[in-house]
Amino acid sequence: MKAFFNKVTVITKDKVLEKGLRKVLEIQKDYKYIESSEILNKKYFADIYLVDMDTVDVIKVIPGINNIHPESKVVILTNNVENFYRTVTIGIQGFLASKNYVEILNGLIEISNSEVYIDKRTLLLLMNNFKNSCTEDLTERERHVLKKLEEHLTYEQIAESLHIKRSTIKNHIENIYVKLNARNKYEAINKSKEIRI
Fold this sequence. Notes:
Elements: E1 6-11, H1 15-26, E2 31-33, H2 36-40, E3 48-52, H3 58-68, E4 73-77, H4 84-87, E5 94-96, H5 101-113, E6 117-118, H6 120-137, H7 140-150, H8 155-162, H9 166-180, H10 185-194
Parallel strand pairs: 1-2, 1-3, 3-4, 4-5, 5-6
Helix pairs in contact: 7-9, 7-10, 8-9, 9-10
């Protein structure tokens, strides 16, 4: 019976990274390292392409890989987690904000067993940016109203303290509920504390 393994290639100009990953992959039974030159000569194709965004123009390289080998998975390697936003729309299945061999190997295991993989640091960045986008949606006045809700003031007390009509307060509170995806003032207050408005 023939053993199954994932063929992996590394596309990088960093020879130290390429050599290190080759050594790591060569001792793994589930992976076979394929020289990128063998892929360029069309002798082989890879199941997983590890593309070093810090040394290669991924905007040019990845669409070519996807056209020639659409069934292959493309994983970005970079030292900059912020690069995620530049690559998410060009057809990647994995993103690793690390060039640590152990983390790359763990990422390979994950991408081999699933459709998509994003490392934990990148997920934290995305979660923080999502939280920040929620807070940016609230107007300054809505933030003031929310602060007053946190002080457990009634609508009338909030209207009086901000010198606006009660009906305007109700409109602001409805907008806050929609923007924070809250069903009531308690959820809005809790969500505001979670995202630190």
